[in-house]
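Our consortium's second objective concerns turning raw sequence data into structural hypotheses that experimental partners can test. To show how far this objective has progressed, the report includes one record in full. It was chosen at random from the queue rather than selected for favorable results. The single chain below, 353 residues long, was entered without modification.
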Amino acid sequence: MSKKTQQIAVPLISVLMGLILGALIMLLFGYDPIWGYEGLFQTAFGSLKNIGEIVRAMAPLILVALGFTVASRAGFFNIGLSGQAFAGWLAAGWFALAFPDLPRPLMIFLTVVIGMIAGGIAGAIPGILRAFLGTSEVIVTIMMNYIILYFGNYAIQQLMAEPLKKSIDSTVAVSANATYRLGWLSSFTNNSRANLGIFLALIAVAIIWYLLNKTTVGFEIRSVGLNPYASEYAGISSKRTIILSMIISGALAGLAGVVEGLGTFENVFVQSSSLAIGFDGMAVSLLAGNNPIGSIFAAFLFGTLSVGSPGMNIAGIPPEVVKIVTASIIFFVGAHYVIERYIKPKKAVKGGK
């Protein structure tokens, strides 16, 4: 088996083993897994509206996965994607509410830029601390999640002008100029919440793939991720690369927050915990093997599981079982070294034989 084939086979086997483990758990608690999975997939693909919802769910997951991929390629574990996404959502949503009458093309452009700047700043802080002080980006980004979460909730409740608020915990809906919903796409998918975000996500996939594989910046990011000391010796500034990679990572997460906020919910509201898209997006990236193109297919799987989970009620199975299936898949992805031990790429033979 070639190395390329192995990279495709390992995630597929991880998904299969996750589904099998989920089925065994259903059997253990007395449920019929065949009926459960049938209900899940029939619900997910049983209507145009639900297919549209899968597309809607994919967009922020792809963007967060891309952010995690960039950080991972630079050798960092960015746990702060949830906070960075909320920062982008809050900043862009606040701007959209404050200037509701801007022309739609300008509004979309500015909310994208503002969300990415907010997320980039949130990502830059742990990047700067890591580059100059050697702090653990894991600990700093985890703490940043809480800082952004509680500051964001405080801003919504105490700092936003009253005319922008529907209640103490929620704002009014953004104007028609600011929503990411597309009339023709909603109509085509039977009034689903599918929106502009999926197109932004696909553009981002192309840009990040090109950045990482075809540019000097991408080479530097990968080089620092493999060996920062050798990179420094070769003339690459590891500090600059660390900060840049975290800014890019945070900016992509910030854009994911904008898509989620202005595309799915169309307003800003208090969050009880860190955004789920942050952690789910990390899982998408892991399943994709930190491959930008692979993140599309991994996000499709996670979107399918999310949208189809209510269908498991048909078999009397709690939808939370889908969470177990998802966790099982992540477990096997995390344990990919075990799978790779039994699926080894062919070794090159001397002389090309």
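The partners drew two points from this record. The beta strands are 165-167, 170-171. The longest helix spans residues 104-133. Both points have been shared with the crystallography group to help prioritize constructs.
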